[in-house]
TrEMBL record, chains A, B, C, D:
Keyword Oxidoreductase: yes
Keywords: Oxidoreductase
UniProt domain GFO/IDH/MocA-like oxidoreductase: residue ranges: 140-287
Gene encoding the protein: iolG_21
Name of the featured protein: Myo-inositol 2-dehydrogenase
Matches recorded under InterPro entries: Gfo/Idh/MocA-like_OxRdtase_N, Gfo/Idh/MocA_oxidrdct_glycsds, GFO_IDH_MocA-like_dom, NAD(P)-bd_dom_sf
Organism in which the protein naturally occurs: Dyadobacter linearis
Residue ranges constituting the Gfo/Idh/MocA-like oxidoreductase N-terminal domain according to the UniProt record: 5-130
EC number: 1.1.1.18
Record-level Gene Ontology MF annotations: inositol 2-dehydrogenase (NAD+) activity
């Protein structure tokens, strides 16, 4: 592997770390057709970005993302920023002919997404949208089982994405709680993942009904200057308005006749990062929970009568997608590994022109569902897509 | 306990057996203020009802429920029949001054329910509606924890009631699949239970959105003549139309600000009788699954930091409701025991004038929610209650 | 079913209730060749035994078990007493030609057991030993799977029987803690069940190593006069010596080459009645836990590669042993139901001369293993059986 | 962090990869007082070691470990080899003043271990023995809970370490199955981990009884030349003798009065890497399973009556040891992360002279227990330590 792929990353917080780790580890555990070079890290604050670059081995730094994109030595722009910044950067990157590895959710709106997709296609760049959960081995294995016909015709999709990090009313008003940065609350942050998985595993959605709710309407102003992760500190006693929803529920019909439900919330006390789905079909069923991400539950009507039951597949064997490259069977992997798998497939897509998904066309469809959801929540009516 | 309470039961199939067992066992394990006497069993077919009466020890039989109700020696009418027969019988029983132990769902409509309630109140009879799950010890304990403030303000109710007994398209068109007998499918049969639990544990519902679906629209005509339970045999190759829904999903707002979801289906392959709910509140959370009915999961923010987690309470101790009357701790009970608990409380209600719930007023509220659901599914609009 | 079988029961506490319930319920849910008549209840205290008889419907009472055995109208003697009383009663009952339904553990010693067996055989009476767990549907289904070859050659038996009811040092010195009544602690009470299951599911044992321990050596004297169950009250500040072990561990070899372990204790804080076993074989594995007694876990190497895992069979279907006679699939049963199944098989054994196990020959083998265990614990040496 | 620590690693297979990954990742996620430099990788086959070095970024290679140890620029010798090679290398490294990071099990015998410990102490080098499971966050948290008195006096330790990779009789005779390389089977490989955890969490052991077994006595000769992991290929039809045990069970007494059991096997069909322990104490209990390594089950008698139960702590919060340095709460980590934690503590031990355990003194104690086990299995007698 002599070929190299020069990466420029924008953003150095939670996702900056997760992406850096993935660029570093991919070639250690997988055979990939080019070696990712951690070339440039970009962030607005020179000191912070320098610290980050030094720790993770990024060779250089920039403080202006436009300068980064202008650099001819950069092959890939990795957008590891909140969603309000994706649109402008992605357009510029695509126009400069850079391949794009973009954090989710794709954008602030379907209108933005549409344009981002078009410009990428026009400029023939690879555009990958990092809904990383598709590459959790248990999820990838579920996909394969569905494709192999083991579940049959799907009747039900039942999904929740539950967190609890803002149950405390004194948790401050971080950027995730402001419409101007985040566009929406869990509908954007969490349901974007859930809808992506539904598209991936079940199919396209035809109708959406949605209900949103706010449980805490005002919160202390946040001090996010130095924060590198979700837990920001409150600045003082001053309060500001929460301008996104706290919870978003959806009921949908799929084009193939299945029905589905989504439930995204930051108020499920005790659930830290529980993305769980259940799929019920005419031949079998599947259940997954991200908090037990190495396990996939499977029920098969093909099992002998009397011996049927939900079995827990420990998805750590060489017969399973991705995971055989890590450790022997039974040695589980963690959250960050799905990012590594994404990098592996992304590098192949760039070097070998293999298709990769989800991409911006998937992101556009997700945006359309999420927007329909907000519209339904507003109007109290079912929306046809 | 010298006092006796004479019971007349109408119906001798699945619920006839479950109720008979409960009348028999209640005085063996609980101190109750009157002894239930299994006086008369009533059913249209003399031979079947005689067999049933002999097996279970009912002293006499009747084939006309009107004659049963006219008998002055009967104190209680136990209605163990499908819902299309509840209305007429309950009215007659109440007018005759009989106390009523009525199987669920209450009726075919809220209009019927309203009249049933009024006539019972006018005639001052005890009217109990057998949503038996309230008296599963784990559910009763959950109620107590909520009342004791251990969960705090409720944010989320997430509930499903999943079965899979009609996944096979060759399963015949039994009465449960015909609108004229059943009024609706899982919306009536299963969601009536789920809504009752939501009312019991969370509170009243203010808005309903609903989505229903049919997966199999025609089925072989059933031969139910001799069938004593759910699994009827198909009569031949002739098919008839399924006139109720196969699945019913709802999203609701509660008057107290919580949001909730319901998902009732007979197409959840692998789920036999999974009535599961999750309650998330500001101080803690609760999770229950009827297939593991002796367990209650509880998360408490009052636990020390670092030591928090969902704990599985094995609800079999003398500190728990009802269950201490059975066996030592750790010795679990089964499905039928909740019926015994219902009889215990019903006898007390009759003899000691203690209130009992759910009663027909609860049943009326359930009917209103379920009807609003069907109306929403039809119109695609959220319904305000 | 016109035939009747007259039962005389001796003992009216925990097991008296469990057995009475079983005699009553068996004909309600199963077709059996004779109807058990609850004829005579026998106990030393007239008032207590009368209360018991009235509650459960025993027609008459006796206070001297010898008089009971002399009665010509009694067909079956049900011994629901502590183990120190089994020997003398069983001998007398067998000599009087009565069939015997005997609570476990069989006796105080293998010498007693040997004699009990011989006298029963000489007098050609049915002798059933109530290791009720064999008739939990999940256990009976496990047996069938083993017989069908689904597990293959057995390598491992791993079993524990854990309770925690004497962790509190102030728990009083009840009869279970006195050698003169109980012979031993969990080695007798709990490991008798565990060894019976091992014999049933794996086979005969050839060597035993054992280790016992006492954690609390003195306890308050108990006041057991009025106690009907395990939780006796302490009498005062006076203390007495605990003369049985608190925990007993065993390692064994089976004649078929498998190895096994047992761990019985009353000091497993948080475990109320956890009898759990794991069986690992060349084709598959089984796991059971009595606290989840409706479930059986099964791993099969015959499942497709990549889709293997421990599946949880909810043993509530008509394809499973016994349980189809109760309720529809997914409706679980409880602790007492296994006693009903025992009565069903016992009545068949008496009426139709079908063999029934475990019987006193099984009990004798259990005694030999348990005695070898105590001998090993004393000597620190492996004992060959 | 300008300080550097030069590492020389010997071995490049399963453990070579796991250690390399740990040296690389430690400084990315943790603040450590020196930066580990991947200086030299050593292995007998030049081509293989070169490939390995290039992939993982080891600057140089050696094919003779003696030359590596002679190099003055090396600070740390990382022994990532089978146990038959530890003794000679560790002695040489210690005499050369190198700090040692040694894979487990420590040695072939307690005699070797004793000498290794003495030479390390004489030469004042840091000697770390990589029983990595101590640094799984859930295990480290369990240790803290025990130290904080949350479990109270310990009554029971119940542990198993189950794998199933040699159930197939055609699995070849790899080095792990030969006494001259491995010294023993699961008694060495698996029980060394289990005994280390018992020492760590419960305390020292005073008596040992052990039982071992061989299920498959002959296997195809293995072709291990090119094998980088456990699954070697069979060479042909020729067979060789398995000279280590297939399963090893132990019962022990601890010096503090607790009793314990161990069960190590490679024949537990369906268990891939299940290292599970249960600890029962006077105030609470703990349960852990390596296949669910992010979870710790905890039962507390301090919980309110009626609300007690085993709670599942998802050990991914900043309040937990190590894990806060990775990702937000609820984002789980994997098998390899414990190696990173070991490196973090090892670097601190080297740079800041903080104590680190387990070290060779712990390894010596483990060897003594394991040897006593083999001796007991041979003699059928309990061994006093």
């Amino acid at each position: 592997m002599n070929k190299q792929l020069n990466i420029g990353i924008i953003g150095y917080k939670f996702m900056g770390r997760a992406h850096s780790n993935a660029w570093l580890k991919a070639p250690l555990f997988f055979d990939i057709p080019a070696h990712p070079v951690l070339k440039v890290a970009c962030g607005r604050q020179q000191e912070s970005v320098s610290d980050f670059a030094q720790k993770w081995g990024w060779e250089e730094t920039e403080t202006d993302w436009r300068r980064l994109i202008e650099r001819p030595d950069i092959d890939v722009i990795d957008i590891a920023l909140p969603q309000n910044l994706h649109y402008e950067i992605a357009l510029a990157a695509a126009k400069a002919g850079k391949h794009i590895f973009c954090e989710k959710p794709l954008s602030m709106s379907s209108r933005q997404a549409e344009e981002m997709l078009k410009v990428c296609e026009d400029n023939k760049v690879v555009h990958y949208l990092n809904h990383n959960y598709r590459r959790v081995p248990a999820v990838a294995h579920a996909k394969k089982m569905l494709e192999d016909g083991k579940i049959g015709r799907i009747f039900h999709w039942r999904c929740c994405y539950q967190q609890d990090w803002i149950v405390d009313p004194e948790f401050p008003l971080t950027w995730q709680l402001k419409k101007e940065v985040a566009q929406a609350g869990p509908q954007w942050d969490l349901n974007s993942h859930a809808v992506d998985l539904a598209h991936f595993l079940v199919g396209d959605i035809s109708t959406v009904s949605c209900l949103t709710s706010n449980f805490i309407t005002e919160r202390p102003i946040a001090n996010e200057n130095s924060s590198g992760n979700l837990s920001a500190e409150a600045l003082g006693s001053e309060k500001g308005e929460v301008t996104v929803e706290d919870a978003a529920l959806m009921m949908v019909r799929f084009k193939n006749g299945a029905v589905g439900s989504f439930e995204a919330t930051r108020f499920a006390t005790g659930r830290k990062n529980r993305l769980s789905f259940e799929i019920y079909g005419s031949k079998g069923s599947l259940v997954f929970d991200m908090e037990k991400m190495n396990e996939l539950q499977y029920f098969s009507l093909a099992d002998p009568e009397g011996d049927q039951g939900f079995r827990t597949i420990l998805v750590t064997e060489s017969a399973h997608p991705y995971v055989g490259n890590w450790w022997p069977a039974g040695h589980i992997i963690g959250y960050e590994h799905a990012f590594v798998h994404a990098v592996v497939d992304f590098v192949k897509a760039v070097e070998e022109k293999t298709p990769i998904s989800p991409d911006f066309s998937d992101g556009l469809k997700i945006m359309q569902v999420l927007e329909a959801g907000l519209q339904s929540a507003e109007s109290g009516r079912q929306i046809l897509l």
